[in-house]
TrEMBL record:
Residues 75-146 form the PAS domain. Residues 378-632 form the EAL domain. InterPro entries: Biofilm_reg_signaling, EAL_dom, GGDEF_dom, PAS. This is EAL domain-containing protein. CDD domains: EAL (cd01948), GGDEF (cd01949). Residues 236-369 form the GGDEF domain. It comes from Clostridium frigoris. It comes from the Bacteria. It holds the Pfam family EAL.
Amino acid sequence: MNVKKTVKIKISKFMEKVYIIFPSLLIKKDLKRFYEILKSYKKFYIAYVQAVDVKEKLKVQYGKINKKLAIIEKSEEKYQLTLDSTYDAVWEIDLITKMFSSSNRFNDITGYYKEGVNSIEDIVKFVLEEDRKIVKNDFINLINGRVLYYQCRLKLNFNGIENRWFLIRSMCLRNTGGVATKIVGSILGISIQRNFEEEINKLKYYDILTDTPNRKLFISTLENEIIKHKTNYKYAKHAVLFIDLDNFKEINDTLGHNYGDELLINVANLIKATMPKGALVSRVGGDEFFILMRNIKEYSEISRLCVKLQSLLNCAIKIDEKHVYTSASIGITIFPNDGYDTNILLKNADTAMYSAKNNGKARYSFFNESMSFIIVRRAEIEKGLRNALANNELEMYYQPQIDIINNKLKGFEALLRWNSAKLGKVSPAEFIPIAEQSGLIVSIGDWIIKMVCLQNSLWKSKGYLYDTIAINLSGIQLQNDDFEENLKNIISETKINPKFVELEITESIFMKDFDRSIKLLTAIRELGITIALDDFGTGYSSLSYLKRLPITTLKIDKSFIDNIDTNEREKVIVDGIILLAQKIGLDVIAEGAETKKQIELLKGMGCNQIQGYYFSKPLSANEIEEKFLRTNYINQ
Ligand code: C2E
Ligand code: CA
Ligand code: CA
């Protein structure tokens, strides 16, 4: 029964009594008693009002509580909803019982459907072996309070098949005594996001064509290795290799960019297949690759791999039924021996690579300090040569060639001299190869032909007696399509009879395009110009094709002449060359004879023409005129 009703009944009963008593009291005029009754009525009334008030208050409070409960219910629902809709799952490690428990979502996220609680050990095995130590350490730090909150991205493997990325967040719960009791956390699958990031990273740090790290990634990896070395005081040696293909531009220009791209992919794969596991192979631009070989024990390891790689590149790479041949120049520098800094190491590798190129390409070079000097010198020479013509620093010298049978001047070999304002006198043996590699030889070569033909024409107009002046030609000059036309123009401009002109070529020019070279030289021969094959014996010297070449003279290289008076074997070779040349109707000239003994030996072998310091060093045109032409030189 409720309070209100009880009070009402009590009041009504009381009032009944009052009504019964009241008239009688009034009749009895017992007013004292009447007041007492009224007083107790008042007390009762107050009690009643108070009771009603309390009830009202309770009612209000009850309403409020109900409202609050509704809110709580709602927020619980919401919480559940939130938990269900977020991708995070909640987990907990009880550090006392060593048990692991998780929300249902954990199973959905991880694909791990083992029911019930698991031990920590069960859970640890999902962490990849290589990360376990680090992760364990991180959790120890969390338990010890060294970190308050721990977050990491981890690759986990829940199904034994694939590793997937997860974001783990966790914190430690402690009892009032501060002792860690639980680690609670969340886990979120981030493989899609991570894969996306990896894609973006790939674009940023990888060369898409060859699927190798790019320069940026290579450099940061190398920097990390150097830092590791510094912090750990390790004594590991690393090698940085710089590989540059020797003929990539030609392939790209002649076969097209698609072939070029295919070649680069093939080369990258060959390099990857050749290099040891753990080596970082990176295409850093064009046809250039950097390689980082870690923990080198012996330099011979690297040499062996370079040789292997060269031989693989030399075998034809098949692209669309076409065979493409290539080779590479490789520069090698060793960390920390050659340098302790990324920039220095890369510069060294570059220097060593250029050294390999300058020494004839298709080879490898280990960096050494003197190479830097050579590279700087090379750059200075190339720079100087560009202005040498305009600055009037070039001059032709002439070295006499003597006919020792008839004791007369056979002619001269024209040799270029460069007296650089900045570098002083530079030997042609040093600057001609640089002029060839830089392509400067084409313009310089035209100038040489013009100057020598002018000189020749002038001397002939003065009536001097000699057969020819020989001009040295570089292979690159002959490759120029305009060569024949230019030559004809110079001959007609300088009004020189072509029979007084000889050209000196080397065997290397036949290596490029044999048929084209034969055609060109035949056309030149038809003009009446004679052709000498220079440095015979040092190159390929294939006797079988000698007869097919449109040449008139064989020049036996100085290196054979040097030893004919001391080395019987060399003497036999020179004897053989002379015999052979005579047999196929070629003139022979021996170059670099310095002693009387050499001259006599050569004479005895039937060599009738000789050029060498024994008679004269190369001289300026004025000196030649003075010493050889005006005096109508006759051998003493
Ligand atoms: P090369 O064509 O074999 O020239 C012969 C070289 O041997 C010349 O050196 C000459 O001075 C040197 N020589 C001749 N007789 C003797 C001797 O008895 N003893 C010694 N020790 N040396 C002797 P140079 O003038 O220094 O030329 C070196 C090379 O530079 C030439 O070798 C040639 O390959 C190149 N070269 C020189 N001038 C020209 C040029 O006008 N055009 C081109 N394309 N190359 C040139
Ligand atoms: Ca020569
Ligand atoms: Ca020569």
